[in-house]
From TrEMBL:
PANTHER family: PREPHENATE DEHYDROGENASE, PREPHENATE DEHYDROGENASE [NADP(+)]. It comes from Luteimonas marina. This is Prephenate dehydrogenase. It is an enzyme of class 1 (oxidoreductase). Keywords: Amino-acid biosynthesis, Aromatic amino acid biosynthesis, NAD, Oxidoreductase, Tyrosine biosynthesis.
C-alpha cells in the first residue's frame, strides 16, 4: 500500500465532493482525481478506476448503490487491494453495493453539512467498517486527519440510529414549518411570531430554516430511503394523536394520563442526561441572548498568534468600554471572528472610536458593529 495514495472522488463537483477534494489535497497532501457529470472538466470514470487507490462516493443517496454497481462492473476486479469509501447519509444500500466489489470497504457518514472549517473537529463521523484489512492503518490516519468524533457501527445499526437522529428530527421540524405556514394567514409569518419567541422556539425555527435551506433531495431520501423511518413516523404520529385526544378530552383523567405518558419520559432520559441536556440548553439560551445584544462588534483577527486577542481587548479597555460577552464564531463565508457584546448603555461614539482604532491599526478587521 502506498503511503500517499491517489484519491478518486465520484461526485467531485457536489457539496461534499468539493469539500473532500480540498481536504485530501490541502490537509492530507494527496493527489485527487474526480468525476462528476456536473463538471465537464472533471476526469472520466476510467481515470478514477485506473489511478485511484482510494475511491470515495459522494453522490446523491438515491443513485449511489446503482452507481457503485456500475463502478464494480467497470472496475472488473482492478479494485482488489484498494479501498472504497462513501459518505452517503443512508449506509446499508451503499455499503452492500461496495461489498459486491473486491475492494476493502468502509462507509463514512459525517453528521454535518460540509463545515466551513478545514476538518470535522467537534463533529461526529459515523464509521461503518465493512471489510477492512491492509488499509486499516491508513484509514486511522484519515480519521485522525479529519479530527472528528468517530463512532463505529454496522451499516444496519447506523440506519436504525438515523431514523431517530435524522428522520425524526427532520420530520418534526418540517411538520412544524408546515403548521407555521398554515397559521401565517391568522397570526402572520415567522417575522410576526419571532418577537414573542422563547429560546426553544428560536432554536426550532433555526433547525427548520436550516433543513429548508440545504439540499432538498437529501431530506427527501432520509425519510423515503431509510427502511426504518416509516416505523418511527408511526410512533411519532401515535404520540401526537394521543396528546391531541387527551387535550380534546381535557378532564382530570386525561391530564393524569398526559403526566404518565408524556412527562414521565424524564425517567427514561435518566438523571444525568436530563442534567446535561438542561445545562446544554441553558448555555445555548445564554448564547442566543448574547447574540441578540444591541451593542456589539464582530472582529476578525488576521494574525492567529498568542496574545492577539489580548491586544484587541486592550483597545476596548483603553477606551473605557466594558465587555459583557465574547464568543468565537464563523461568518457564512467561514471566517473565524470574535463577536463581542458590550454592556447596556455603552456610548455609541466611544465604541465607534474603539472600532475605528482596531480597523486602522490592523489589530483586527471589524466585520460588523452596532
Ligand atoms: N450535504 C450534506 O449535508 C451531507 C452531509 C452528510 C453526508 N452527505 C452525503 O453526501 C452525498 C453527496 O451529498 P451532497 O450534498 O454533496 O450532494 P450534491 O447534490 O451537492 O452532490 C452530488 C454530486 O454527485 C454528482 N453526480 C450525480 N450523478 C453522478 C454520477 N453518475 N457520477 C458522478 N457524480 C454524479 C452530482 O452532479 C453532484 O455534483 C450524499 O450521499 C449525502 O447523503 C451530505
Ligand atoms: O445542517 C447540518 O449541518 C446537518 O447536520 C445536516 C444533516 C442533518 O440534518 O442531520 C443532514 C444530512 C447529513 O446526512 C448529515 C447531517
Amino acid at each position: 500500500m502506498k503511503p500517499f495514495p491517489v484519491i478518486g472522488i465520484v461526485g467531485s463537483a457536489g457539496t461534499y465532493g468539493r469539500w473532500l477534494c480540498g481536504f485530501f489535497e490541502r490537509r492530507m497532501g494527496l493527489r485527487v482525481v474526480g468525476h462528476d457529470p456536473g463538471d465537464a472538466g472533471s476526469d472520466a470514470p476510467e481515470v478514477l478506476l485506473e489511478q485511484a487507490d482510494v475511491l470515495l462516493f459522494a453522490t446523491p443517496i438515491r443513485l449511489t448503490a446503482a452507481l457503485v454497481d456500475d463502478y464494480v462492473r467497470l472496475s472488473a476486479g482492478r479494485e482488489a487491494g484498494r479501498l472504497w469509501l462513501d459518505v452517503t447519509s443512508i449506509k446499508q444500500g451503499a455499503v452492500d453495493a461496495m461489498l459486491r466489489s473486491r475492494a476493502e470497504v468502509v462507509g463514512l457518514h459525517p453528521m454535518t453539512a460540509p463545515p466551513k472549517a478545514p476538518t470535522m473537529k467537534g463533529r461526529v463521523v459515523v464509521v461503518c467498517e465493512a471489510r477492512i484489512d491492509r488499509w486499516r492503518p491508513w484509514l486511522q490516519g484519515l480519521l485522525d486527519a479529519l479530527e472528528g468524533e468517530c463512532v463505529h457501527a454496522s451499516a444496519e445499526r447506523h440506519d436504525r440510529m438515523m431514523a431517530l437522529v435524522q428522520a425524526m428530527v427532520h420530520a418534526s421540524h418540517l411538520a412544524q414549518a408546515g403548521v407555521l405556514e398554515e397559521y401565517a394567514g391568522d397570526v402572520g409569518g415567522l417575522a410576526a411570531i419571532m418577537p414573542f419567541r422563547s429560546a426553544s422556539f428560536e432554536l426550532d425555527a433555526a433547525i427548520a430554516a436550516r433543513i429548508l435551506s440545504l439540499n432538498p433531495e437529501i431530506y427527501e431520501e432520509i425519510q423515503f430511503g431509510n427502511t426504518h423511518s416509516a416505523d418511527m413516523l408511526d410512533r411519532l404520529l401515535a404520540r401526537l394523536s394521543e396528546l391531541r385526544d387527551l387535550v380534546r378530552r381535557g378532564d382530570d383523567a386525561a391530564r393524569a394520563r398526559f403526566r404518565a405518558r408524556f412527562l414521565q419520559s424524564r425517567e427514561a432520559f435518566g438523571a444525568q442526561a436530563l442534567a446535561e441536556g438542561n445545562y446544554a440548553y441553558e448555555r445555548v439560551g445564554y448564547l442566543l441572548a448574547d447574540l441578540a445584544g444591541r451593542r456589539f462588534a464582530s472582529v476578525h483577527l488576521p494574525e492567529d498568534r498568542p496574545g492577539s486577542l489580548r491586544t484587541l481587548l486592550h483597545v476596548f479597555e483603553r477606551h473605557g468600554v466594558s465587555l459583557e460577552s465574547i464568543h468565537s464564531s464563523r461568518t457564512p463565508g467561514g471566517e473565524v471572528h470574535f463577536r463581542i457584546g458590550f454592556v447596556r448603555g455603552t456610548d455609541a461614539a466611544t465604541l465607534a472610536a474603539a472600532v475605528a482604532e482596531i480597523d486602522d491599526s490592523g489589530i483586527g478587521r471589524v466585520l460588523e458593529s452596532g
